């Protein structure tokens, strides 16, 4: 009822459209009762995929028809983000207050973070890597470095080396270690030892980050901590610097078609600012050491400069800002391109030539650009329109793949279930 009121559509029409979406996808996308409605898991994923599709169509229009580049221009209202570490509440609150950005955050193991980003289930990911940030994703992402993240060792207070201010990895090789698995399925402790030119410890527990913290708290093993890693605070444990100064890099990976360049940089800087503030509050004893004090001073100075950056001057809104595009109109334009003229397309679509001409003219007015070249010899598409339609076909195929991925074992979709050109519900609209 609220959707009907806000959109000016009848309640029954909203119900029928939702039912039609369920039939098209082959899965229930909403759970509805008399007074409430909410999305199913499949519905949430379809919503993310659909929002990305509309962003891409808008971006393709800006890029190919208006020539404004391949970057996102408008920030999303809600950014779907997956993180390897529990993001602090301050990050979510500060993003809403200072960036006017609402974060929808989920937390996963590093390898699952990469899979969700690659599978277009989220718009951004906060994760870590050893040495320089690397990713092998097929989708296009922008990497914003958050912090170079020096590692320390966590020891029981009664450990023989706990009295030292600094210890070496070489002195700890025979200890029992606990380690998490990184984004590339590499073992953090093993890689740290290898990068230091040492053989990996033989007694090594490999587990998730939360279980690793529990083992450390019980004193059953030693492990690695860092400024961005959730702190293990317990009177029975001590933190000691490592002579080898191992470190990892934390990064924010974003979809550039969804997240504008300036917003991505400001969000990365905000995460760094909050992490540095927490480090200073909880690990002030490390700041008594010159090396850590210098590292902190350098990071806070660089972070302040980054966070003070102004808006992205390279992003220019399109001429058709505020336009609304009807997906069915785009399909009619595809039909004209496929059949070579309005006459032939109208015959195949079983609509009148005048009706098709009016729909194409409406689309041109919505975009504020000429899409067809008309002459006595016939109708042809402009070069930018052809590029736009090629991108549209790719985006529709990607959307169908995302929708098909939602099917469950109990409710498989029939072979050839999706229409050739109407994977998006008729009447769906996009705001620029």
UniProtKB/TrEMBL annotation:
The keyword Cell membrane does not apply. GO terms for molecular function: DNA binding; DNA-binding transcription factor activity. The keyword Iron does not apply. Keywords: DNA-binding, Transcription, Transcription regulation. Transmembrane segments: none annotated. GO terms for cellular component: protein-DNA complex. It holds the Pfam family HTH_1. Residues 325-382 form the HTH lysR-type domain. Belongs to the LysR transcriptional regulatory family. This is Transcriptional activator ClaR. It comes from Streptomyces clavuligerus. The gene is claR.
């Amino acid at each position: 009822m609220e959707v009907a009121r806000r959109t000016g559509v009848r309640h029954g029409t909203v119900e029928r459209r939702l039912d039609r979406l369920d039939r098209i996808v082959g899965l229930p996308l909403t759970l509805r009762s008399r007074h409430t409605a909410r999305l199913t898991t499949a519905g949430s994923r379809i919503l993310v995929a659909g929002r990305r599709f509309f962003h891409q169509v808008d971006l393709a229009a800006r890029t190919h028809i208006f020539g404004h580049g391949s970057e996102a221009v408008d920030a999303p209202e809600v950014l779907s983000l997956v993180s390897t570490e529990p993001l602090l509440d301050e990050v979510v609150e500060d993003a809403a207050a200072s960036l006017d950005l609402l974060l929808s955050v989920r937390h996963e193991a590093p390898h699952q973070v990469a899979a969700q980003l690659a599978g277009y289930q989220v718009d951004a990911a906060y994760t870590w890597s050893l040495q320089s940030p690397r990713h092998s994703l097929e989708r296009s992402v922008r990497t914003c470095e958050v912090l170079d993240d020096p590692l320390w060792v966590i020891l029981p207070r009664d450990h023989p080396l706990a009295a030292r201010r600094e210890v070496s990895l070489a002195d700890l090789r025979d200890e029992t270690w606990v380690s998490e698995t990184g984004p590339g399925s590499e073992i953090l402790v093993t890689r740290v030892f290898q990068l230091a030119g040492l053989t990996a410890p033989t007694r090594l527990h490999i587990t998730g980050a939360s279980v690793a913290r529990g083992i450390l708290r019980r004193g059953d093993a030693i492990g690695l901590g860092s400024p961005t890693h959730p702190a293990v605070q317990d009177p029975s444990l001590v933190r000691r610097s490592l002579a080898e100064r191992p470190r990892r890099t934390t990064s924010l990976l974003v979809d550039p078609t969804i997240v504008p360049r300036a917003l991505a940089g400001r969000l990365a800087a905000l995460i760094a600012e909050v992490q540095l503030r927490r480090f200073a509050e909880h690990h002030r004893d490390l700041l008594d050491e010159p090396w850590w004090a210098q590292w902190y001073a350098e990071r806070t100075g660089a972070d302040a400069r980054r966070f003070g950056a102004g808006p992205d001057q390279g992003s220019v809104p399109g001429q058709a800002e505020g336009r609304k595009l009807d997906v069915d109109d785009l399909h009619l334009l595809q039909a004209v391109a496929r059949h070579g003229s309005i006459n032939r397309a109208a015959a195949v679509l079983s609509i009148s030539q005048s009706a098709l001409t009016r729909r194409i003219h409406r689309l041109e007015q919505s975009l504020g650009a000429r899409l067809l070249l008309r002459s006595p010899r016939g109708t042809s598409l402009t070069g930018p329109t052809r590029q736009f339609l090629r991108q549209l076909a790719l985006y529709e195929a990607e959307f169908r793949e995302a929708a098909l991925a939602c099917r469950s074992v109990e409710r498989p979709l029939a072979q050839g279930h999706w229409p050739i050109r109407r994977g998006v519900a008729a009447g769906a609209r996009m705001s620029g």
